[in-house]
Design brief:
It comes from Pseudonocardia hierapolitana. This is CHAD domain-containing protein. Pfam families: CHAD. The structure is a single chain. By secondary structure, the protein is α+β, with helices and mostly antiparallel strands. The protein has two domains: 196 residues, Hypothetical Protein Pfu-838710-001 (Beta Barrel); 300 residues, CHAD domain. Helix content is 54%, strand content 16%. The chain contains 15 helices and nine strands. The chain has a nine-stranded antiparallel β-sheet with strand order 5-4-3-2-6-7-8-1-9, sandwiched between helices. A hairpin with an 8-residue loop joins strand 4 and strand 5. Helix 7 runs antiparallel to helix 8 and helix 7 crosses helix 12.
Length: 513
């Protein structure tokens, strides 16, 4: 048996506030109109006085509709899941209710020290009718809204208009006839929603959100390129802050990456900025990355060890090792997640976010930053490249004692990341040369990253084996994985000289001067 569904159509029209509602009972197939009760629908936005949520594309609002339970709604920008969070509004809530703590916590990284108060409102006074055909068959539902949109706070800006919404329409001919009738009354197809209009009123232009408070930067200069990169990473930091507070996968890692990119850019291009202003920011970014490290390490290690055990033959899994790993990382990841939220709610992080905003509003650029980006930026990348070259010389030196090699490879890995981020800053100005350079370095950097994974994993496996032994259990499986990681680390160390020679070919770095 095949189920069939009727496809229905929905359209919205807009006109002047004084536009009336034309009679619709003479439309083709319509026998009568059945009026629906009047409703008042209100959406009250909450934000800080300087509209930080609106600037971040976040909607926090109270919805009140006649006959329905009022509720809070929180929407995040670019939510691929289409998710919105709802919390009922208490029946005894005051006219200006307090934001529920569970919602306030999620946006704390954006609000910071600001106070959430009513910032805007969309109000609809709704009337309407059901268009019925023969045998009272529903042909369409048409609602007529008188819409007012206004900002609230120290100053008020607003607009008013009429909207007509037609939905449940299964007859294309009726839809076309309805559009003609509404057009005769001065109503045209709407191109934006009332909430979008309120967004436009609340959200400051990009030029006011960033870089309007200080020196103007000439396009094409080294300073302009650096500030553009910093701005993108500050935006990424803010976005990942939201995701981390919601406990989304990979969010802590991406938050750390944004912090590292910001720190590396300020360090690699330190001659373009006033270091008295940037060094405290660099220190705070380093501390942020350090505070987030346990959560990321636990996530990576749990997955690596779980997958490693899953790949062993059953005869090698002696004792309840998988259960032990699950218990261990449930505790470790729980503690790490709590530490992440503690760091994000701390005073130092709030100060860092303010300092980053200040850097973008008034970039502390030196005279050197006014030089052309295409000529100036490669010199800074070259400095980072020389730093990596020195680190690699130690990492691939066979004379380096085995106990020091892990540290040397890790130092090369950190220098490689710094070079990669420095290249990212220069890439828009330099073009394909910088792109090719980054691509050629990737294989070498991936090998360094895998080597570090084996180092950290071996420490964790040793700890798990010790725990098992202390409980009288068998930690043999952890030893097997430890041996495999040690062997893999040795393989990578043997490959590094060839990988480096490929990445460091003269043609790849000719653009560095």
């Amino acid at each position: 048996m095949t189920d069939t569904t009727t496809r229905t159509e929905s359209r919205t029209f807009r006109g002047a506030a004084e536009a009336g509602s034309p009679r619709l009972d003479a439309l083709p197939g319509v026998h009568r109109e059945d009026a629906v009760p009047q409703q008042v629908l209100e959406v009250e936005r909450f934000d800080t006085a300087d509209h930080r949520l609106a600037a971040a594309g976040i909607t926090l609002a109270v919805h009140r509709t006649d006959g329905e339970q009022p509720h809070w709604r929180l929407d995040f920008p670019d939510d691929d899941r289409g998710e919105e969070l709802r919390v009922p509004l208490a029946p005894d809530a005051p006219p200006v209710p307090d934001v529920p703590s569970e919602l306030a916590e999620l946006v704390r990284g954006v609000v910071r020290d600001g106070e959430l108060r009513p910032s805007g409102q969309v109000r609809r006074v709704r009337t309407g009718s059901r268009l019925l055909g023969e045998d009272d068959r529903l042909l369409a539902t048409v609602v007529h809204d008188h819409v007012t949109v206004a900002t609230l706070g120290s100053s008020t800006e607003g607009a008013a208009w009429t909207e007509v919404h037609a939905h449940d329409m299964s007859d294309g001919g009726l839809a076309e006839a309805l559009e003609r009738r509404l057009g005769e009354a001065g109503l045209k197809p709407a191109t934006t929603s009332a909430e979008a209009e309120l967004d436009r009123l609340l959200r400051p232009p990009a030029r006011q959100r960033r870089g309007s408070g200080g020196k103007r930067m000439k396009p094409g200069t080294a300073g302009a390129a650096l500030v553009e990169y910093l701005a993108a990473q500050v935006d990424r930091l803010a976005a990942e802050d939201l995701r981390a507070r919601r406990g989304e996968p990979d969010s802590v890692h991406q938050l750390r990456v944004a912090a590292r990119r910001l720190r590396s850019a300020l360090q690699s291009y330190r001659r373009l900025v006033d270091r008295e202003r940037t060094e405290p920011v660099v220190d705070s970014l380093r501390e942020l990355a350090r505070s987030l490290a346990p959560a990321r390490d636990a996530e990576v290690l749990h997955e690596r060890i779980r997958d490693g055990l899953g790949g062993l033959k059953p005869e090698l899994l002696l004792g309840p090792v998988q259960a032990q790993v699950t218990r261990h990382y449930a505790r470790v990841e729980g503690e790490a997640a709590a530490a992440v939220l503690s760091a994000l709610d701390g005073d130092e992080y709030a100060r860092l976010r303010r300092d980053l905003d200040d850097l973008l509003q008034d970039p502390p650029l030196t005279k050197r930053a006014a030089r052309p980006a295409r000529k100036e930026l490669p010199a800074h990348v070259a400095r980072a490249a020389r730093r990596l070259s020195r680190a690699v010389e130690v990492a691939v030196d066979p004379a380096v004692p085995a106990e020091e090699r892990d540290i040397a490879v890790h130092d090369a890995r950190k220098a490689g990341k710094r070079l990669r981020y420095a290249t990212e800053v220069a890439r828009p100005a330099v073009g394909k040369d910088a792109k090719r350079f980054a691509k050629e370095l990737k294989g070498f950097q991936d090998a360094l990253g895998e080597h570090q994974d084996t180092v950290v994993a071996r420490d964790a496996l040793r700890e798990l084996a010790t725990q098992a032994s202390g409980k009288g259990e068998n930690g043999f499986a952890f030893g097997v994985l430890h041996g495999r990681d040690a062997a893999r680390a040795a393989e990578i160390e043997a490959q590094l000289p060839d990988l480096w020679a490929t990445a460091w070919r003269p043609r790849n770095r000719r653009w560095l001067g």
